[in-house]
Specification:
0% of the residues are buried. This protein has four helices and two strands. By secondary structure, the protein is mainly alpha-helical.
């Protein structure tokens, strides 16, 4: 969701941001949406940078690994 872009963050008690490295974000986006590298980069650049989202988050979860690693981090 475009939570910060839509200025909706005040509608929630806590905000969790899940992020990964820019290269992995691009790769996942290309695979999931069948996008070219250029299309993926355009979509990413249209969003608020992850660094700005992290500054506004109550919790940050790194998602650079496997699904199992993500699940462990969520539980923590």
């Amino acid at each position: 969701p475009l939570l910060f872009e839509k200025k909706m963050q005040l509608d929630f008690d806590k905000i969790i941001v899940v992020g990964c490295s820019p290269d992995l974000q691009k790769s996942r986006l290309m695979k999931r949406n069948s996008l070219t590298e250029e299309q993926a980069l355009q979509r990413i650049s249209a969003q608020l940078p992850l660094s700005q989202k992290i500054k506004q988050a109550d919790f940050v979860i790194e998602n650079d690994g496997t699904l199992e690693e993500l699940q462990r981090r969520v539980q923590q």
